[in-house]
Amino acid sequence: MSAPSTVPTCTSSRCNSIQVESGSWMVYERPNYMGYQYFLRRGEYPDYQRWMGFNDCVKSCHMIPQNQGAHKMRIYERSDFGGQMLEFADDLPSLYDRFQYNDIHSCNVMEGYWLFYEHPNYRGRHYLLRPGEYRRYSDWGAINSRIGSIRRAVAHPN
User: Fold this and answer.
1) Is the pTM of this model over 0.70?
2) Residue 10 buriedness (CB in 10 A; 0-12 / 13-18 / 19+)
3) pLDDT tens for residues 45-98?
């Protein structure tokens, strides 16, 4: 995957492999950036299980702009930025191990692009968060508030 930066829909209903030549990408199982989301960095993905896919369907994708500066995010235990607030700037392989809870009901992405993962150690469903306010978990496309890990969306991890 290289330029163009946006591919509105794919012509095939199945995707057997992907090669990312540069940058970071989000691929989606449905058109118009809907459905399951998968974060891909430079490299080869010979089958959908290598990108942690639930199936081999890819219908839309886009490149993730690379943030040259810092990453910063605030997470909240309740909707509409209520309850306990935590601010951080680094990856969290286990939200529960660090903060003793794993339900995030709202967040404010102040700098950079971030990924929420359903399970610890960057496993399960992925959710891309751009800079902005997310008043409830459905705003980032989740069906519940459970988050196991959080990672900065960068092309090359530290």
Assistant:
1) yes
2) middle
3) 877 666 666 667 777 888 888 777 889 999 999 999 999 999 999 999 999 998
